[in-house]
Each structure stands twice: as structure tokens, then as C-alpha cells.
Fold this sequence. Notes:
Blueprint: H1 10-26, H2 31-34, H3 37-48, H4 63-84, E1 97-101, H5 107-115, E2 125-130, H6 133-148, E3 160-165, E4 177-183, H7 187-190, H8 195-210, E5 214-225, H9 228-243, E6 246-250, E7 279-282, H10 288-296, E8 303-314, E9 329-334, E10 339-340, E11 353-360, E12 363-370, H11 371-374, E13 382-386, E14 392-393, E15 400-403, E16 408-410, E17 416-418
Parallel strand pairs: 1-2, 1-4, 2-3, 4-5, 12-15
Antiparallel strand pairs: 5-8, 6-8, 7-8, 9-11, 9-13, 10-11, 11-12, 14-15, 16-17
Helix pairs in contact: 1-4, 1-6, 3-4, 4-5, 5-6, 8-9
Amino acid sequence: METLFPPLSVEIRRQVDSIPALVDQVLPIPKRFRSGLSRDVAELSRLLTSGRGERNDSYLNEAPLLSAYLRYFLPWNVYRLARLFPSLPLPLAAGDALTDLGSGPLTLPIALWISRPDLRQLPLEFRCLDRSGPALEAGKKIFTALTSSNTAANTSCPWTIKTIRASLGEPVRFSKAKLLTAVNLFNELFWKLPGVSALASFTEKQARILSPLTLESGSILALEPGVPRCGEFISLLRASLSAKGRLPLSPCPHTGPCPLPGIPAASRSEKADTKWCHFAFTTTDAPAALHRLSEAAGIPKERAVLSFLLAGPVNAALAPASEPAPQDSLPVRVISDPFPLTGEGKRNGPAALHGRYGCSVRGLVLVSGKRDGVETLESGTQVTLTATTPEKRDGKSGALVLGLSSSLSLASPGFIDII
């Protein structure tokens, strides 16, 4: 069964596992400072979450915080991207240029090299922008060491890496990109904005920046932490880019309005039932050394959670997964974890009725079925379900209820059909 986040292959896992040791090899920590690493990781985590108001814009220029980022956040982000990239449609060709905004220590090029061996032999140009010069330089050293250790003798990596110290929105002088990327960038900019209106204005401004930096035949990838505010941003960005002719390629199974905007119905009341587009997967195949550091820092990570959007070329023809489906056949992207349905809370056997929320062109969907069947549909799986007449709606969420049959067949990479 294939999803947006297939398990790492043996080779990709070996490469991901090598990152913590590679960072130590390229940028070693003096022994007298290593004992404080877990404390620095915990502090940086605090500054990136509950302590955002205390963090300055140049935090990656501070040696202890940069060291913590390289040893904790860089490997975790590489791992998350390595789980996602194999399933994304990235039609890159020799000579294409990629622009990575907020590149930090070159997280995206590192993850792309590791997880897409089909691209390693292509001459590609990466323009990596960040306001932290030390982070860019550290990333370039790590990338060089990684590719040198994985390139055959007497050959060199055909990727060209150009680092540019700049902030988002500053004038840039390079050609438009075939792929424009921004990973964990925007949440640092929009988090303090009050309310939906301010976030919508901010997002529209970002869309006006991103689209002109990208070829009309190119794509835009934005990825953020999988929390409600970020899901809200991704939904707004989807709408803004769609209005410019850049329709969603992934994860959306359709090009209609987003049914998971992340905005509570009751005027953003904290008690409102908020549903936002995000995906989660277990981290059992993440590097053991990374898990040990996470435990030592007091922030164990059993699951990775993210929200993302891959927007395609301007006025592109709809991808097969986005084409209008027959009325009785509905592509659905599974979003949530499984949960027992009303009245089924005390039943926990394999035949107990469970559900998962999903996204479709007809809005929010509640996929219902036996527990053992529903649990096989990991977050990010796409299924095709049969709509019935008359339709059934969930009393709590208003979602269209679609039943899950027991027969599964393997579809194209990243997708599962339910027959």
C-alpha cells in the first residue's frame, strides 16, 4: 500500500542515518561543549515554539543555536522531506534551476540528494537564499561531504550550489526557477499576525512574490509544521496561487475550494472544532542517534507532522488525480488519525466501526469502516470511494460519510484505489 509517505528504502535510510555523524565530522563540537548540546537543543526548540517572542531574526548566527540546529532540526527536517519527496511529482530535467528560500543549512538540497537518486546525475543549479551566512556555509560543507562520499571515483556531483545571503522579498538577480521551494520559512514570519484577515493579506503578498520567481512551466513547494495556524496558511496559499493559475498538484485530490481551511466556524473560538490539512507518520525509521538526542533534550518525537502544498505550472492541465471523477466515484485524500465513531467507543476489536477524515472535491469526507480496514489507510493515502444515494452526512462535522469496502488494489505510486 503506497501513500504520500512510503517507508524509507534501505539505501535512503542509510543515507538519512548518516547525517548526524556527518555533521559531527564536518563541524565537530569541542568536548567541553558537547555536554551542553541537549540543553541548547531544548532552548532552541523553546525559541521556535513557546518563546517565539524572545527569538531574534539572526538566531542562526549564534554559534550554540546553530550547532543545536545542525544536530537536531536539520536531521529531523531531512528525515521528514526524505519520507515525502519520493512520492512528489518533480519533473526536473538537465539544466533546470531550483530556488530554495530560507534554505538555512541547505536542508532541502541535502534531502533531495538523499531521497531522489533519480536526480543525482542531472546537472541542476540550486540558488539557496537565507539571511544567515553561517548557516549557509555550514550547509554547503555538509552537502559537499555528503555528495563526495556518494559519488563514484573520478566523477563529481553535477549539482551547482549557489548560496545567497538575502531575506525574502529582497531584489534577486537570477533566472526564474523550474522549482521554487520554501521549507519551514513562513511560520517565522506570520506567527504574530492577528486574525484571519491579516494572515490572508500576508499570504496573498507571498503568492505575489513566489509566482514571478517561478517559470510558468515550473512548480512551487511550500512546507510548514503541521499545526492549525500553518494549515490555515497553506490553505490560503493554495487559494492565492490557484487564482494565479497555479493549481495544486499535491496533496490535493481536486482543484476545488479547500474543505480544510483550519479556521474554526465559531469565529476562531478556541473551543471550536478545528480541522486543518496536515499529515502525520511515525518516526520509527528515523536515525537512532537523533532519537537519543531528542530524549536527552526532553522533546522525544514519536511522530512527524507537516502541512504542505505543491502548486503546479500556470494554467496546467489537471493531473490525473485531480480530474473530475464520476458522480459515484470520489477520490479522497485521508487526513486524520483513525477514531471510533459515535456509539462505538467501547468497541475496540478489528470489526469495530472507526473513521478517518479526508478531503475531496465534495468537501470534507468521513471515511468509515471496520477498524482493521480504516487503520490501513495511513495519513496521506489517497482512495477512491463510492458515493451512495441518498448521501449520508456526519451529524457532528457535516462531513459526507463514505463507506470503506474490504477489497484494496494497488494504484499508481502514492495512490490506493478502493474497489
